[in-house]
Structure formats: structure tokens, C-alpha cells
Specification:
The chain is of the alpha/beta class. The protein is built from two helices and three strands; from the N terminus they run E-H-E-H-E. The chain has a three-stranded parallel β-sheet with strand order 1-2-3, covered by helices on one side.
């Protein structure tokens, strides 16, 4: 099993990179699982359900994926996706 582990996805630039390039990276490297630290995906202010859903739809699918985040006071809401 090949696992791709990504560090911080920070703000729109990080999200844009993933949505534009992750599918090609997964294909080229035959990645089975993607793990990404998404706690700064909302520009350093946590992650929102909307952003998590956007990443799920545009970047992660169809491969298995996990968005990781630490426990931060800046986490905007509990994610239910």
C-alpha cells in the first residue's frame, strides 16, 4: 500500500494546488491513501465544513483520504461529512 502524507494545506493556495495536482500525483505514483493536515485550510483559521467538502469533492475522490487536524481553538466547527 502506498500512502501519501501531506503537511499543512494552508489557505486557498494550498487548496488550489491540491485540486489542480493531486489527481495526477495519485495516478503517477499509484497512491492508495492520502493523508493531509487540513487544520489551516481556511487560511490559518481552522477548517470549515464547506472547505472540507470542497476538498473531498475536488481533490480526494475517488481514492481513500483523511483530513487530519490538531485540536485548536481556531477550529471553526465540528465537521460532519
Amino acid at each position: 500500500m502506498k500512502i501519501l502524507i501531506l503537511g499543512d494545506v494552508v489557505g486557498r493556495p494550498g487548496r488550489n494546488f491540491l485540486t489542480q495536482h493531486l489527481a495526477g500525483i495519485r495516478t503517477d505514483m499509484a497512491i492508495d491513501l492520502v493523508l493531509a493536515n487540513g487544520e489551516n485550510a481556511a487560511g490559518g483559521a481552522g477548517i470549515t465544513a464547506k472547505i472540507a467538502a470542497e476538498l473531498k469533492e475536488r481533490a480526494w475522490m475517488p481514492s481513500p483520504w483523511v483530513i487530519m487536524f490538531g485540536i485548536k481553538k481556531t477550529l471553526k466547527m465540528k465537521l460532519k461529512i
